[in-house]
Design brief:
136 residues, 41% helix, alpha+beta, Alpha-Beta Plaits, single chain, binds nickel (II) ion
Length: 136
């Protein structure tokens, strides 16, 4: 059920907001505002160490000695937090691994940080999600 409310803001801020809406291809102001609010709430849940879901994506060089083993070993250490992992062989050297995670925000963040710190990991990104409800 959608409820309506009125928002007042300065001309200049509204101009910036409309520019943002255009850049991000939102259909209208309501949709953009809902998205901004949801993102802020998700950030708050993560900061409060709530139960969250997220996706870690990392790119690494599989020629780096022992790296493949470390990535696998670490995922076994965090098997309670890992829902699923998909491995893509990107090219001759690089692998992309996408890890779907759920659990306490702090635990998931630790997994992401530890993966990122491994030598040979070129890029690692954690995208934060949440259902907005308690996860079981
Ligand atoms: Ni690979």
């Amino acid at each position: 059920m959608l409820k309506r409310f009125t928002v007042s803001m300065e001309d200049s801020l509204l101009e910036d907001f409309d520019g943002f809406i255009q850049d991000r291809h939102y259909q209208n102001r309501s949709e953009a505002l809902r998205d901004l609010i949801r993102n802020r709430i998700i950030e708050k849940e993560w900061a409060a160490d709530k139960d969250v879901m997220g996706v870690i994506s990392l790119v690494y060089d599989h020629h780096q000695p022992k790296l493949q083993e470390k990535v696998t070993e670490l995922q076994h250490d965090f098997h309670h937090q890992i829902v699923s992992t998909t491995h893509v062989h990107m090219d001759h050297d690089n692998c992309l691994e996408v890890i779907i995670v759920r659990g306490k925000a702090g635990e998931v963040q630790t997994l992401s940080d530890t993966l990122r710190a491994l030598r040979g990991v070129r890029n690692s990104n954690l995208s934060m999600g949440s259902t907005g409800q308690h996860l079981h």
